[in-house]
Structures are given as C-alpha cells and as structure tokens.
Amino acid sequence: MAEDLSALWNEVVVVPDFPTPGISFKDLLGILANPVTLGLAVRAWAEAVRPEKPTMIVGIEARGFPLGAALAYELGCGFVLLRKPGKLPRDVHRREYELEYGTSALEIHQDALTSADRVVIVDDVLATGGTAAAAVELVRETGAHVISLAVLMELTFLPGRSAVSCHDVRIHALIDDEGRPLP
Ligand code: AMP
After folding, report:
1. 53 part of a folded domain
2. Residue 183 domain-assigned (yes or no)
3. pLDDT tens-digit map of 68-97
4. Which of 11, 49, 74, 78 has its CA 20 to 30 A from that of 22?
C-alpha cells in the first residue's frame, strides 16, 4: 500500500483485562477520532478492494458502522448493517457465534442484499474470526456474494484468518496487534 500505515498504531489504546480478565482489548476509536488516520485507513481499504468491484459494504455492529459507511462513500457503494439481535424491524436472518470472550449473535434484514451484490464486510478487529465467519454466512443467506473482509487490526496470534479464509473470503487487514503494517 502506498501510504504509511504505522501511523494507525499511535491512535490505538490497549486496555488490559477488558471486558474480562486476561483479554487485552485494542481500543481503535482513536483511529476514527483523528481525521488523518480515518482517511488513511479508508483510502488503504479502498485501494485494496476497488479491484474486487464491490457493490455493497456490510458493517458489523458497532464499529463496523462508521468505518464501513466511510468506505462505502469512498467507493460509491451502498451500505448495509449487521445488527445485534432485536434491533432490525423487519424479517431477519440470524446467526449465533462465539467471541474471544463469550457468545453473541448478529442479524441482517432478509431483503437487504440481492444475488447481484458483491459484498465487502467491515469490522474493526479480527480476533478468533467467529464474528466475521457468522457475518459471511449471514450475507450469503441473502443470496449475495462475499468477496472480502476489511478490518483495521488482525490479532495474528489467534486463528481468525483461517476461520474466515476457509470460507473463500479474502482478508484486508491493515495492522497487526503490535502495530506492524500487514501486507
Ligand atoms: P472475533 O469474533 O473473536 O474475531 O471478535 C471480533 C469482534 O470482537 C470485533 O467486532 C471486535 O470489535 C471484538 N473484539 C474481539 N477481541 C477484541 C480485542 N482483543 N480487542 C478489541 N476488540 C475485540
């Protein structure tokens, strides 16, 4: 990638033992709060996914919403939300999955996407890959094609990459858990 992604790490706050003891939580909200790093991240993603010709960006609640919407705007794509249960008002598809700390579930409106859509899924962190794998399955349930997953950070000591790439989905991760830019 053309720009220096190491600047992203300056905006990361590592919070020990959150939300449960033993978890080193990577708070990436500073990347969003700084217009320089927000632009850097969105341009880097856009450069990576533009050749994949996406039509829709799908954001995972909650940090995938602002990040994904910014990427959708940059690419001229539409934006769709994957929400926590009980938030979407119409008929949904639903998937439960395991987190690095506990379990959760996601939902998507059944009519949010069509078989003509080529989708990039966006989130802040790829950890065990449970969230992203559930997101891939949900999007596929609508009939749309999932091309890739875009995240700011990949926790490379966890098996998230294989949990996602086994679904035949490319991964665009900008930095690892020590701030090193990823290829
Ligand atoms: P996973 O399903 O294990 O890949 O977890 C990914 C989701 O959980 C993302 O939406 C992240 O926001 C969040 N997450 C999991 N582990 C961490 C972590 N160590 N630091 C920050 N966010 C995390």
Report:
1. yes
2. no
3. 999 999 999 999 999 999 999 999 999 999
4. 11
Report if residue 55 sits inside a domain: yes
- Closest-CA residue, ligand 1 atom 17, reads 25
Q: Annotated catalytic, 100? A: yes
The boundaries of the domain holding residue 109 are: 5-176
Catalytically annotated residue among 63, 83, 95, 154: 63
| Residue list, ligand 1 pocket, CB within 6 Å | 23-26, 60, 63, 99-100, 123-132, 155, 160
Global model pTM greater than 0.90 = yes
**Residue 56 belongs to domain with CATH number:** 3.40.50.2020
Q: What is residue 50's predicted lDDT score, i.e. its pLDDT?
A: 98
**In the β-sheet with 145-154, what is the strand arrangement from edge to edge?**
78-82, 56-60, 118-126, 145-154, 170-176
Is-catalytic flag, 63?
Answer: yes
pLDDT at 1: 47
